[in-house]
UniProtKB/TrEMBL annotation:
UniProt keyword annotation of Cell membrane present: yes
Membrane topology category: Multi-pass membrane protein
GO biological process: transmembrane transport
Pfam families: BPD_transp_1 (PF00528)
This protein's record includes keyword Ligase: no
Origin superkingdom: Bacteria
GO cellular component, one term: plasma membrane
Annotated ranges, domain ABC transmembrane type-1: 75-265
Stated name of the protein: Carbohydrate ABC transporter permease
Subcellular location: Cell membrane
Species, as recorded: Ktedonosporobacter rubrisoli
Stored Gene3D superfamilies: MetI-like
SUPFAM superfamilies: MetI-like
Residue ranges of the TM segments: 15-37, 74-101, 113-137, 143-166, 187-212, 244-265
Amino acid sequence: MSVRQPAYARAVRRVLFWLAVIVVLVFFLFPPVWLLLTSLKNYKDAFAMPPVLIFKPILDNYVQVLGNADFLGYAWHSVVVAIVSSGLSLLIGAPAAYALAKMRFKGRDDLALFVLGSRIAPPLMLLFPLYLIFFHIHVLNSLPALIVTYITMELPFTVWILSTFFEDVPDEIREAALVDGEGEFGAFLHVMLPLIRSGLAATAILCIIQSWNEFLFALILSGNHSSTLPVGITSFMTFQGTQWGPLTAAGTLVMIPILIFCLLVQKPLVRGMTLGAVK
């Protein structure tokens, strides 16, 4: 009996584990799967009750969305904003993170606390001040306004995450570089940055995902000529009614690039985040 009980307990735990996995997968996969299925249905099948699970797929909704020149423009805006804002966040944040992690100067702890506070503060606190600033300097409803906004949102995150990666690098490596004739900037650029490249990749990936998916700031600060994809989807919601077919097709098209991107970069993302977790 004493031998069978642990085996029974292990079997129960295994069953409960896989049940939990199934529940979590259903919870997270049901919305995108339903979105995809709806985008492939005609209007009648999309709103049939009970739901139609076996149907003839159509691509009319995708043809309508991809034939919309405005939607392709929104896609270009999203790509530009995501890449530029993430790149500039890394360009500015990496030296700042290095300074906070490895250099000793007056006010260092206060600056680190300010960066942490900026990260914790609700992003909505930035919305009204940024709107007024952009309005008075006449850059409202433009891509530069969105890029600056996303840099403001991503920079505290970038500094805080990268500082943990720099802290994981032994001080002896930096000191050896300084002894060998490298200046502080040379030690940062030629020695320290290559050692945390996995962390740089992970941080860049997270910044790109955040910029790609952000909706509220893009909705308020962008205009017809600078809207991104999350905002562009709302163009299928009109006073005449919601075009559910094109709306779900557009949502699927917005989701697919970031899913493919995450699948391609999952290894450096996991490796980078794991490296930052080891002390």
